[in-house]
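W.,

You were right to be curious about this one. When I first looked at the sequence I had no strong expectations either way, so I just let the prediction run and decided to look at it fresh. Below is the sequence, 740 residues in total, followed by the output.
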Amino acid sequence: MREANVEAGKQDTLPLLLEIGCEEIPARFLRDAERGLGELVQEAISEARLLPDPSVGAVREPPLQTYSTPRRLVVHVPAMLTRQPDRVEEILGPPVKVAVNAEGKYTRAAESFAQKNSARLEDLARTTTPKGEYLALRKTTQGRDASAVLAEILPAAILHLGFPKSMYWIEKSGPRFVRPIRWVLAVLGEGKQAEAVNFEVLGVRSGDFTFGHRVYSKGPITVNGFSDYGAELRRAFVEFDPEQRRQTLRTKTKVLLEDSLILIEDADLEEWLVNSTEWPSAIRGGFDERFLHLPREILITVMRDHQKYFAVENLQGKLEPYFVAVLNVDSDERGLICQGHERVLRARFSDAVFFWDADQRMPLRDRMARLEKVTYQAELGSYADKVRRMRAIAARLSEKLEVQGILEAGQREQVLRAVELSKCDLTTQMVQEFAELQGVVGGLYAKAQGELEGVATAIYDHYLPQGVEEKCPRTAVGALVSLADKLDAVVAGFAVGNGPTGSSDPFAIRRQANGVIKVLLEISASIDLDSEIVLELAALREKLAFESVEVAEAVRKFVRERLTFHLETVVGLRYDTIRAAMGARQSVHEPAQVMVRAKAIERIRSSDDFLSLSQSAKRIRNILSKSAQASDFEGRGFDPERLEAGPEQDLYSAYERVREEAAEKRAAGDLHAALECIASLRAPVDLFFDKVLVMAEDPEVRRNRLQLLIALDRLFTEDADLSQIEKANVDAPTSAPAAR
């Protein structure tokens, strides 16, 4: 069946305005909901053939724009067809040779085809296809008015919007939405042409009205299209555009501060406040200076995470006894709201002071025994068990990093001490009240209780990095504690079956593995992850039952996937560069070495010699996969004396020379120079393939030449698997083609 839209030429269009009004949507859901509704509406009107053809007429605006406030999701389609174009379908029937007899009359096959499609025989036509001539029937479906089509498709688009959590308020088995819908504005057209699109969703009838601010505006507000929508809402104390609210928020907070004061920037808090207000304003409050003896991190956490306030500092970066709160009302002329916020903050700070003082009565070193009663995971035991596993990992890695010069003399003891104390803050009242401060509180308490600065800093930082774009621990000691923590989480998680599946990762194993990769690359540590995985699993086998080989292979594969993800997404390397670096025979399980190889490949891959040789490496790999026997790879029986004078002997001589030179460059740590040496084999390799027949009739000659190719293949995978480089991909994007 073939389809075509007719009625080309002038396209009559009207704008559409859709607003879903509901109870307050949680701030963390709002922007995804706004984007999701826009995508669903665009998909629906596109499938309904209501979007104008961009090739007809002048360049138009984007297909639609989306906006949101806590109480509304808005979609504006600037130009939509007033009527669907007619649709013509060409329905293929039987082949002409079957449907028409020798006398040129229709057969029973043609009659059945016409009857099935409620058509007359005279309506049938012939059409030519790649398979030959067929009977066909052209059916025209008349287009419908946009308002009628929208009334059918918009309710479905609205109800298909997904949320992490939804509610029902009509019946349990019925459709759900994030919060109860209170009104639906659906207007097609502008001004006098504007008409409401009539439909019902979850018991609410659509109309041409909206509602303003919950406090300042009462009753419905009639809307005659998008052109007056914004003005009407702003008169009702609602700013529907999130970016305008953001600018308003920034302007109003800045006005509150003196020249000597600075708002501590917090993009996440700003986003939350933009998504929590319809008409933002700001107030500045203060608190007693006596609370400033608490660490800065605790004060800011209380203000930001628990009260949604911005903290304030001076030009020297010292915290000041002020805060800025954002309100969803126009002003606080009498100061009552500010007094309320100050009173609440005073109580929260008083709690923090109490927790700090109470926790200091039992130092971290005396809390280690308490970790025996804090469960880490049901099968993996307590946090004390985790700390013991971390300590074993840290002890092994410390020795290696000392040899590599990453850890200085005496820092190994700091690493082990930091590991022992790293989880003790989980037993403190401060962390039990402010869970987001775990690790940070441990570091602050360790410093206050006289632990070495290196130990305190390592405890403070050991949960870092928490994302691929976030910073790593500041010191090598902290990096090692972080590695021990994350490596244990990954390997132990797989051992008890908690590895990620598809998009599900409830135990954040991907984040932990990303952290392992990022830290190793940050400190340029040569760590054999495969060996560490095996050793950790061996320790876990003493208490758990699982298939060691199977789990080890699953973890190895997972870690390699995370390394590939990091190099491609974070570092920005090309996918075939990564495959080539990962395919090298030299220590591919060490992320730092893979990174060095990948960067060396990137430097040389624009070279004509290197690219040409990469194609030859691919050719060699294909020949060997089809023609070489397993015994050929053992290397026995290769006889240089059998090589013919000319291109064959010249290639072997060049190979021997280049192999030695590349080994010297590699031993000196210059992989780029080693790859340059290898690339110099381009000319003799090309000449060999031009002049020499590998698959010679003489089996001994053929076998000798295959062994020469095996030697070349080994050289071409020593520092990078050259066969993975794609010549046409010199300037390719970092993502692999879909077909791969």
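Here's what jumped out at me. The radius of gyration is 35 Å. And, maybe more interesting for your project: The chain has five domains: 2-84+145-235, 87-141, 242-352, 366-571, 591-729.

Coffee later to discuss?

I.
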